[in-house]
Amino acid sequence: MAEEDSKPLNYISEVILKKRKNTEAWALRKKEQFQQKKYQSIKKPEDFIHEYRNKEVDLIRMKRRVKRKVPEANSNTLIIIRIQGKKDMHPRTRKVLYSLGLRRRFSAVFVKPSEGIMAKLQRVEPYVTYGYPNLKSIKELIYKKGHARMEQRKVPLTDNNIIEQELGKFGIVCIEDMVHQIYNAGPHFKEVVRFMWPFELNKPAEGLKGSKTSFKEDGDTGNREDLINELINKMN
Length: 236
Prior knowledge:
By secondary structure, this protein is α+β, with helices and mostly antiparallel strands. The chain has helices spanning 2-5, 14-41, 45-66, 91-99, 115-123, 135-145, 160-167, 175-183, 189-195, 228-235; strands spanning 78-82, 107-111, 128-131, 147-150, 153-156, 199-200, 222-223.
C-alpha cells in the first residue's frame, strides 16, 4: 500500500537549476557590495577634520583673491566651464558657482563679461576655466549639447518650434538665431541664455591635469582666452 500511495518526485530541469544558482550568486554579490559600500560610507573623525580644514583654506584663499584687481575680458562673450570642486570647497564658493549656473563638474554656460561676472570668476578661479568661444564652438555646442529649459524641464533642442514658441517674440525662431545672439552678445543674449539649460560636457580624455593652478602657470584653471576652443572641442 505504501508503494501505491507514494507520489513520484517532481522533475526540475537543468535550466531552472542553473537559473536558481545564478540568482543566488547574484544575490550574494549584491549583499557583499552593499556591505562594502556601507562600510566605506562611514566617515572617521579625522575625515571630518580634514574636510573642515580644506573648506577653511578655500575661504581664506578666496578672500585673498578678492583683494586683487578684477581681470578684464577682451571678448563680447565668455564661456565658463566648471572643472573642479566637490567636498573641498567652502559653502560661499559653492554659492557663487551656483549663481553662475554651474552646479556640476563639467557643466558650462555662456555669459556676457561684466565687472560683476569677472569678480565672481575671480572668487571661484580654482574651480573653473573660461575663455572666448569662437563661432564654430558656439554653433557645435548648441547643436550637439543644447537643451531648453521649459517649466524646469530639460528639453532637447531638436525642433525649431520649441525655440519659436519661447523666443519668437524676440525675433528668434531657430538655432542659427540663438548662435547669432550669443556670438555677438546681441540685445536678447540674456533671454537666450535663460532659455538654455547649462551644457553638460564630457570629461576630456586629455587636456586637464587635475590642477587648481592657473592655466597661465601650466595648470588648468582661469582664463584660457582663445585656447578655450581647444578644450571645448575635446569635451563636446
